[in-house]
Amino acid sequence: MASRAFSVLTALSLAALTALPVMAQEDASDRLSIELNSVEPQETGCRMSFVVLNGHEVDLSSAVFEAVLFDAEGAVERMTLFDFGALPSKRTRVRQFVVPQLACDNLGQILINGAQTCEAEAEGDFCIDGLDLKSRIDIRVIG
Q1: b/e for 106-128, b at 16 or more Cβ within 10 A?
Q2: What is the mean pLDDT of residues 11-39?
C-alpha cells in the first residue's frame, strides 16, 4: 500500500513539474521576453547573461538589438549591438555577451533602443511588438 501511495505521489509531482514550462510559455504568448539574468566581471570587461523566450508562433531566424548602456550616474556609457541569433518559437534560450572594458559594478541601466535586425518566417515586427523587458538584478532594462 505504501509503495502505491509513493507511486501516485511521484506521478503527481512529475506531472506538476512538467506543467511548469508549459505555463511559462503560455504566459509569454505573442511576445518576445528578454530578461537580464546576471552580470559577471571578466578580465576583459563585463559578461551579461540574458534569458530570452520567443512566445510568438513563428521562429525568429535573426534578432539583433541596439542597446544603450548607462553608467550608475545615468550617463550614456556606450551604444552596442546584442546579436541574440536565432530564437525558435515557444522556446527559451540563454545568450551571453562580454562588453569589453566595461565595469559591471558601474552599469546602471540598459535601454533597448530598437531592433536593428529582425528576421522571421512571417510578416510582422516580432522583435518590437509586445517586447517584454525584465531584469532579475538591480540593473534596469527598459525599452
Answers
A1: ebbbbbbeebeebebeeeeebbe
A2: 62
